[in-house]
Amino acid sequence: MPPLSPQAIHLHTLVQGQGFPILCLHGHPGFAQSLSVFTQPFSKHFRTIAPDLRGYGRSRAGAAFVMTDHLNDLEALLDRYAIDRCLVLGWSLGGILALELALRLPNRVSGLILVATAAHPKSSHPAIDWQDNVYTGIASILNWFSPGWQWNIDTFGQRSLYRYLIQQHTPTAYQYLAKEALPAFLQTSNQATSALSMALQRGYNRLPDLSAIQCPCLVLAGADDRHITAASSLETAQALPQATYHCYPNAAHLFPWEIPAVVRADIDRWLDENPAVITPPEGFNVVSAAH
Fold this sequence. Notes:
Elements: E1 13-16, E2 21-25, H1 36-42, E3 47-51, H2 68-80, E4 86-91, H3 93-104, E5 109-115, H4 130-145, H5 150-155, H6 171-186, H7 190-201, E6 217-222, H8 230-239, E7 243-248, H9 255-258, H10 260-273, H11 286-289
Parallel strand pairs: 2-3, 2-4, 4-5, 5-6, 6-7
Antiparallel strand pairs: 1-3
Helix pairs in contact: 4-6
């Protein structure tokens, strides 16, 4: 095994908009563009900072690493953009990193939006057989060439592993799968997969530590999520001192791509109810933080 990398690396980052910063963290597999369902609407009013995490997208790993290296990279990223305080949105793995950032840097995290994630993640995913993989491969290739093609959705998509990622097999969801999921999968390194697998094998559980996170949190889950169950997301929300929880029926792990308008409306409502999470701290200069 190559040596572990102890130092932060320079993350390729997609920055959009102006205003209070929102750090947006993707899942596994993923990259910055996977979060466009959030960054595009947010960037109309805020400054969104969406990095490719180490080993994903254009942030190449180079050597084996562990999950805590992501936190070193993200702290260095906040320093690079002179961000004293930000709201953090994390999807799946990104949500776990968001929790870890709030525990490590409580004065720099104003709030958390946790999407399909948990501090003690549990899965109910069934075993995968060869037919699952064949249908998934065919559905993905056809969807790449013709995103949202209804015949492909009906014939292959609903029989593939996509049935565990989404419940509402709409052309919109499949367009996101073609544009953002497949490229993310192809750009996820073996080092990133190994780092995540190692952490899960060790039994990741931060529930006992969540009482230390005092900022407002919004926890969003899909009722039919098989990758990180809604029950484990609820357990996380209950352990956070200031959490609002929403669970969406007939939706799974990729529910922001299934019901994007509903999710965005709930986030907007939560922001209206918690203005402190997007209020610059005293002495904070939005212009300087934007560079």
